[in-house]
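Internal ticket - ligand job 232, adenosine-5'-triphosphate:
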Amino acid sequence: MLSLSDLTLHYGHSQILHGISMQAKPGAVTCLMGTNGVGKTSLLKAISGTHARSGGEMNIEGNDMPKNTSAHALARAGVGYVPQGRDIFPLMTVKENLETGFACIPKSEWHIPDEIFELFPILKQFLARRGGDLSGGQQQQLAIARALIAKPKLLLLDEPTEGIQPNIIKQIGEVIKYLREKGDMAIILVEQFFDFAYDLGDHFVALERGRVIHDATKADTPRDVLLQKVSV
Ligand SMILES: Nc1ncnc2c1ncn2[C@@H]1O[C@H](COP(=O)(O)OP(=O)(O)OP(=O)(O)O)[C@@H](O)[C@H]1O
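stdout (structure tokens):
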């Protein structure tokens, strides 16, 4: 689904990603791991087009995506991005936040599927509540739901468990498993909560200072080996 080859990224003169090559396949959770500051969020920004890469190739479902492809065009091509910190609109209602997910799909598909409320029942209950009045965990659920409304083929999740209470972490884990089992979506999960990531992951990519130091299936990634590679 997604294939990256020799991807580089800079902020001004400072180079953060140094030739990243990796893939993400439908029906699988690819965990992107590494200590703080290795470039995980920057890589998701490059894939989602929210910060243009400086070089390398990106291919989505067989189509080359030039490096100046806009975030909007990538969203239309099937990339759903749930950024770190969620970025929900605090003054808009839950319903309005969900409706912002319509921006990248044809008008004929502008409705909130029942599946969204089956996955996140709390959102149905709080449809008229302002986004900013939800708890952190509920905001995270809203951010994931909003991304799902655009029916992504590739879902990018940046630290979905950060600052969230254990019962909602468990629910988010169940949603990720459900989406994986549907089989048509590739999922890239950036996650510092090691056990959560190791439990969900089918494939593990570890970064160190903007370079890939590990890229293997779960069968070829013993827990202790990965833990050592992604620990300070
Ligand atoms: N907008 C920016 N301008 C300049 N440097 C930045 C910017 N955003 C991130 N960086 C730097 O790029 C490097 C990689 O940051 P990034 O957020 O991608 O890492 P990360 O692996 O996601 O870390 P974390 O787990 O802390 O989120 C860090 O050194 C960071 O300070």
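Auto-summary: The chain has nine helices and ten strands. Residues 2-84+145-229 form a domain with the Rossmann fold fold (CATH 3.40.50.300).
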